[in-house]
Every structure is written in structure tokens, then in C-alpha cells.
Amino acid sequence: MTLPTTGDNLMTTDQSGLRCPRCKAELERITEGLRCSECASQYRVEDGIADLRCGRLDYYFNPVPREAMNTLIEEAEREPWPTIVRRFMAHVKDNVDWLDDLIVDSRYAWKLCLELPPGARFLDLGCGLGNLTKNIAPHVGEVVALDLTWERLRFAKRRFARFNANDRIVLVAGGDGPYLPFPDGYFDCVALSGVLEWVADTVSWEDSDSKLSKAVQMFMSFFGDSNPRVMQRKFLQEIRRILKPGGQLFVAIENRLNYEYFGKRPDHHTQLWYGALLPRFVANLYSIAVNRQPYRTYTYSFGGCRKLFQSAGFSKQEFLGFLDGYTHLSEILSLKTDNDDIWRSSRPHDFQGRIKRDKHFVPAYGIIASNSTQPPNSLLRRIVRLIEIALPPEQLPVSITSCHLTGKEKAVIRGVAGPTPIIINIPCNSTASAVQARHYGLLERAQNLDSLIAFVPKPMACGVIQNVPYYVETELAGQPLRNEIVNLDRMSLLAEVSALLRTINPTPLQCPLTPLVGADFDRVVEKPLQKLLESVDDSEWAQEVRAILCERLRGIPVRYGLMHGDFSVHNIFAHDGRVTGLIDWEDVDASGLPILDALNYLDSAHRAYNPHLTLLDTIPLLATGVWPVEEEQRFLAECYEYLGFDIKYHFELTVLYWLYHVGPQLEFSSGCNRPEIKQRVELLVKEFLRHV
User: Fold this and answer.
1) Does one domain contain both 308 and 403?
2) 421 and 484: one domain?
3) Whose CA is closest to 660, among 588, 606, 608, 610?
4) Per the domain annotation, does 272 fall within a domain?
5) What is the dihedral of CA 224, 225, 228, 234, to 10 degrees?
6) Total domain count for the chain?
7) What are 625-653's pLDDT values in tens digits?
8) Do both 531 and 659 map to the same domain?
């Protein structure tokens, strides 16, 4: 490839990977950058980015003002990445859509459905701020990140320097020329995530001489070669040119018939109520009248997508359904894919659930288009194949029923192995991988512990394929305790919960009561507190808080034992009036403070029963020691006695519960969510300080 990889300002000697966007001829290297061998057009290379833009050199599509963005880019050289993201979010008024775009990794779990051979060449077309490129690069041989906004590419380059040190990523500014700047048949896969609908929105309608001429131009843009569908089809045909035979195009796009558009929300792109549902000609007049802009951001129905891609020369289309959209992705549905033989999405019983999951009305699609005639071989299929190799014959075959994405950046895939219900956990970034490895390690160790083996899922298989780790375990019987206590009685299983805590720590008094000092204090308090307070941008205040809380917590008497770390009504499972087990062991600590699990349970139960409450309501209430439910108050007192903790230090232990509950959450997107940080950290700390 002719371009420099991240962190390298020198081009390689191989010029075969670029073409002139004006005439498709080869480019040659010159002192100033690149020059076309035929039309003699010249292009600069600066900051490790090849600038192959043809005319829109001042184009800027970004919510952060250009000057402020350049400051962020400079700061990204030295500041922690969560700090940079929080500063970006301040410019967009903490709009969570941008947080999802900037830092959430599970939204790209659809990559499992692609056929990515080892060493694949991948194009992220319209890469924006680089989060997709960052996610896909560890699994392929090379990613080309192309965008028209220069500053976005410079920002993305700083991201890649932090997270993709061992990956080959090439940056190109371009996309406004007659051709994409690559040779025929060059890529194994091209991705358009939230891009196709914007292809025709290229003209500024503010430059017309008069209102009348502007109105005429907007009206006429519906016809001929300027029609958005015609422009999108031509764009797709150009992408087909640069794909290898059998290569795949992935498109994430909203569904024109999204069930939400029928009165629940306006169109995503124009903010016109019912705009996407109207005939295009009518929608164009509607947009001109209301928005003073023509209707250019075409999305399509299930059938409309198929016709569009077929007209562009893609004979084969696969469809994924995205809830609640390709942003804020919470569930992936298999609507029509080559994985249908191993993945059949379960059908909900309620009418609303069936509608939102119906292929015609889902919020968004993930479309995989190709002309491949080869047998399917997606990453997901290869993972299933490896799992089947690891299992005994009686647990075959393996099939999938659902795929959900969690706030802890993992795909939770439910299915069956023969007659056995299973869960396949696939972490979506390095933090989630470390977390899942801890969880799976505990499951393996628990198989040799008589006290735990009946209450934890059974580990079945694990492995890695193309840097995609997977962990398979049995699914516990029943449902989360949250559902039981909300639907039945809050107290009905309290004795069962108490018994589970005793099972986890059968002989707590054998561990002596010792003051929390020295290395244990550093491990239990100081390091976790320091890490948590790094989410607070006021560093001076954070250091004051750290000093005050450390002083209050140092020396309190504690006993060590097995602490689950997230002993909540969401992770405790129950069936037929009995507690059946406990999931999510990623925060387990064999030398933790078991009393914190009891506090965790009360906090989670109270919020489950009162869903309008937040941590800011329940933790201060917990810290006072005056709990509103008498039976749970007795449960807590019994836990203090059984586990051998002095209830006199209840306030200090509540502070530690807050630290261990909130801290792990901040390792994910919550660590960049300023409103959540304010509520879960800053305001709660102020409540604690009132009692210090």
C-alpha cells in the first residue's frame, strides 16, 4: 500500500494500492506527496494522511467547532482517552448518540456475520471518528479508513495510535471524486455504517441567487441523475468495482418502515414526522416546505433495499435486524442470512415484540451484499464449528436463538448444544475480554468446589479465532430474581438469598478480624478509589476527596473472604421458588469483603422494586443504616453477625460498596458519560462528605 500506517509519516515504496480519484490511473510518489501518472493531478500527504480530495478541501462535518476540534486533536497526544471523549461530549451537550459513536464497541458485533478471511483488506468508507476502524482492525490484515473531513481523520489517527499499535491502518481523505481512489477488485469487504443515506446530500442550497431559483432547483433535484436513488445506485456500483470477486459490502442503515416512524418519532435524518413513509415526490415537497431543504436522505424498506442492491449489481443480500438501531444497538436479529441454518431468532409472544422484530418494521438493517457463490464461512459460523469440535457428540449440534449486547461491551448469544441451553459470551474490546476471562476462570475453578458447583454455570468451551475470543457456558435454569420479586413478593426469596451468601462463604469466622492497613488498604481502597476518581475532571477536588475518604476508611476492622462483586437481583437466578444460581463472576475477589455483597443485594432489590430510584437515592439511604424494609434490615444485621463484621462501621462499608459497585462500570462507556459521572460519583461523594 502506498500510504503510511498510524504513527509513521513515511510512505511505503509500494504504490499499487492507490489510484487517482479523477481518472483511476496509478499514482507515483513525489517530494510533495503523490502525482497521477496520467492526468498529473497532485495530492499531498500530511500527518500520515493521504489527501485525495478533489474539490471539497474545506468540507467540515463535525459537531465540534473546527478550532475546538484542532485543540482536542492536540490534547489527544497526551491526555487520557476518556478525558478527550468527555471534552468532546461537552461540545455536543452530552448527547448520548455521540457517546455511542465515539466509544461503544459492542455496536459493531455485526462483524461476526461477515466473511473475513485472515489477512483480509477492509475499507471503512466514511470512517468518521474511527471507532469502527479501531474495532475491525485487530481481525483483518489491513483497514483503509476513508473520510471527507480532514479533522476527523486526524482525530482518528490519535485513537489508532492508542488502541491499534499492532494493526495496519491506512488513512485517506477523499470520497468527493468521480471514482473511489482504489484499483478494481482491491477489497475483501467495504463497510458503510450510517453513510449510504447521506450519499446524495452533497449540495448546499443556500447559494442560490433568489428564493424562486432555490425552490426550483430543490424541486428539480428529484429528477434525472440528481435523484437520490440514482446517486446511491451509482455509488454502490462504484463500490462493487473495488470489491474482489465474492467480496462483501456491509451497510448499516435505518429502515424506511421503522415501526417507530408510525407516530412514535420523526424521521432520523430530516426530523419530519412521517417523512420516510410518504411517497418520495411528496416527501420532497414536504421537506422543501418545512425544512427549506429537498428530501435527499433516502432509506429503504426490506423490499426496497433488495431492489436497490440488485439494481447496483449485487445479486445476493443478507439481512440483519438491529434493535434499537445500528446506534444504541441492543439486539441483533437474523432476518435472512447465510447463517439461517445455525441461527433462528426466537419469536416473542406479545404483539408489540413481534412487530418491532418483524423484518419489515425493525428500526434498522445490517445488509451484507455480494455476488458470492461460495459456501458461507462467516466468523460466527467458524466459532460455532470450533465449539462443536470441543463438545461431546451428545451436545451436538450447536444452534443460536438470540444475540444481545450489554453495557459491559459483550455479545451474549443464547442457544442450545444438543439438549443443553447455552450462552456464548463474545467480548467486544480488550477490557471486556479481561473481564470475561476472569468470569470463565472462576467457573472453571468452581467445578472443584462442592459449595459452589451447583450455583454457577458450567464452563463448556473457550477459544480465540482471528482475535475474536469466545466463552461458552451452560445457561442457568429460571430467570433473574428481579423478575421474581417484582412479580411476586419482595421477601419471598430472602431466606434463599441469605443461604446463597452462606454457601459462598461457609466459614467466614476462620478469617481473623484485621485492621485495613498497609498493602491490603492499598489494594482494597487506595488504588480502586484513585481509578474511580480519574473520571472526575476537577483533579484538585478529586485529590481532596481521595484524602478525606482514605483517612476515614484506613484502619477499619475487616474480614476477607469470597466476594462476588455484583451480587444483585439481576445476577441471582430463581426457578419454582428456589434460588438456582449466580451469574456474572467477572468482579469476583477471593480476598474481598463479603459484607459488600449483602449491601449490593439490598441496593439492587430496592431499585428493582422502585424503578424510578437511582444510586443517588438508595446509597445515601443505605449509608444511614435506617433501611425502610424491616425484613431486609434484619437480613443485613444477620449478615453482619454471620460474616463477622462490626456494624459500627456500616457507613464506611457502604462507601466501599459504592466504590466497588461504580468503579467497574466506569471501565466502559459510563466512564465518559458526564451526567452519569456527576450522579454516580460527584453528587454521591458530596453526600458522603456530609457525614464525614
Assistant:
1) no
2) no
3) 588
4) yes
5) 140
6) 4
7) 889 999 999 999 999 999 999 999 999 99
8) yes
Predicted pLDDT of residue 11? 29
Determine, yes or no, domain membership for 134: no
Instruction: Let me know if residue 18 belongs to a domain.
Output: yes
CATH number, domain containing residue 571: 3.90.1200.10
Instruction: Identify whether residues 323 and 417 lie together within a single domain.
Output: no
Candidates 390, 443, 387; CA nearest to 413 is: 387
Closest by CA position to 144, among listed 130, 167, 124: 124
Q: Are residues 356 and 243 in the same domain?
A: yes
Q: How far is CA 98 from CA 42, 155, 275, 640, in A?
A: 35, 14, 24, 44
Q: Same structural domain for residues 458 and 544? A: no
Nearest to 426, CA basis, from 469, 473, 457: 469
Scanning the structure block, which residue is given the C-alpha cell 419489515?
360
> Has residue 14 got a pLDDT over 50?
no
Q: Which amino acid is at 389?
A: I
Cell (9 digits) for 82: 476518556
How many residues are listed for the chain in this entry? 692
Residue that finishes a domain, picked among 377, 411, 434: 377
For 65-69, 149-153, 187-191, 575-579, which range has the lowest pLDDT when averaged over its residues?
A: 575-579
Least confident of 4-8, 144-148, 427-431: 4-8
Identify how many contiguous H helices and E strands the chain contains and give both numbers: 23, 24
Closest CA to 246 of 365, 115, 367: 115
Q: What is the pTM of this model?
A: 0.94
Confidence of residue 494 (pLDDT cuts 50, 70, 90): very high
Q: Which domain holds residue 621?
A: 479-689
| Per-residue pLDDT tens digits for 190-236 | 999 999 999 988 776 666 667 788 888 888 888 999 999 999 999 99
Task: Select from 126, 128, 144 the least CA-distant residue to 136.
Answer: 144
Kindly report whether the peptide bond that precedes residue 584 is cis, defined as omega within 30 degrees of 0: no
What is the average per-residue pLDDT within 45-60?
93
Mean pLDDT of the chain: 93
Residues 499 and 632 in one domain: yes
186 located within any domain: no
